[in-house]
Amino acid sequence: MAQPPALPVIDISRFRAPDAADRDAFLAELRSAAHEVGFFYVTGHGVPAPLRDEVLSAARAFFALPVERRLEIENLNSPQFRGYTRTGTEYTAGSAYWREQIDIGPEREALALGPDDPDYLRLIGPNQWPSALPELRDIVLRWQAEALRVSREVLRALAAALGQDEGYFDQWFDDEAAVHVKIVHYPPRAAEDADQGVGAHKDYGYLALLQQDEVGGLQVQREDGEWIDAVPVPDAFVFNIGEMLEIATQGYLKATQHRVVSPQAGVHRYSIPFFLGPRLDAVVKPLNLPAELAALSRGVTDDPDNPLLAAFGENAVVGWLRSHPRVAERWWSDVLEKRESR
Ligand SMILES: O=C(O)CCC(=O)C(=O)O
Ligand SMILES: [Fe+2]
């Protein structure tokens, strides 16, 4: 049965409202959604419905390809962790996820690097695209451009809601900014009690945007520990705060834990998350919050299993190495050895 959404709904078009009072009311709503829950729906985003349908259809078509065609772009081929991950080979906290996916990032040439270059520069490189579904590239890149536009608008609105100039975060963006799209398929659970689609985690960039189909399964942890469903809301994206914004606001905004419960037998779920991070070389500094907001900051989460790193490139490297151990062993063994001996 359809449940009413338990998360706030933010109409981003109100950010450009000509009426100052309405804009202030909008910023107050956004601020409270981002501070109290860290998860909210965004409507009024202007991403055309046909494009949203096209990307989900392309996702279904890719995962319906024979496995050998999917494996042509396996991420094991890619030092930059790009490409296809088979079900059961991606991890959080040592426990496998029940999903398959394609990881896509900015389309670049890999750099010729020396031993003293920072490790995160190894994340720069080309994507892999399936020859069996040539239209996927164009559809995903068009969708990615729209997701980037909407996320940057939400980030501008958040800057304004935090008492900053709306362009505050622009200093961290240029062509090297970390954008990351995932095309994801959650197969039905293999057994009634095997329901981990994705284990509890936080996202490491500034913001994540999610387009989900009508199945549901995403859950968000409230401050009291209770898990609530981020039920699909037609035409809305789900947004959540990532670790970089938690650091920038000293915990006034919080990177919220979330997870995905696998669909029931016979049901398949498809989702397209998009992650917006700053440039790989960005080191996020705490921003100057207005006193009344600073008083409500909770500090940055101190979890020994997942220390939050203000250096974004390093935060990203740690995340990739942890979630894709096979790619890490194949292409990053020198980095792993260096880190183990520290
Ligand atoms: O597919 C979803 O609903 C969420 C996925 C997610 O949280 C992630 O990939 O970080
Ligand atoms: Fe996530």
From TrEMBL:
InterPro entries: DIOX_N (IPR026992), IPNS-like_FE2OG_OXY (IPR044861), IPNS-like_sf (IPR027443), Oxoglu/Fe-dep_dioxygenase_dom (IPR005123). Keywords: Antibiotic biosynthesis, Iron, Metal-binding, Oxidoreductase. It comes from the Bacteria. Pfam families: 2OG-FeII_Oxy, DIOX_N. The keyword Mitochondrion does not apply. GO terms for biological process: antibiotic biosynthetic process. Residues 177-278 form the Fe2OG dioxygenase domain. The keyword Metal-binding applies. One of its GO terms (molecular function) is oxidoreductase activity. Pathway: Antibiotic biosynthesis. Belongs to the iron/ascorbate-dependent oxidoreductase family. This is Shy11. It comes from Streptomyces hygroscopicus subsp. yingchengensis. The gene is shy11.
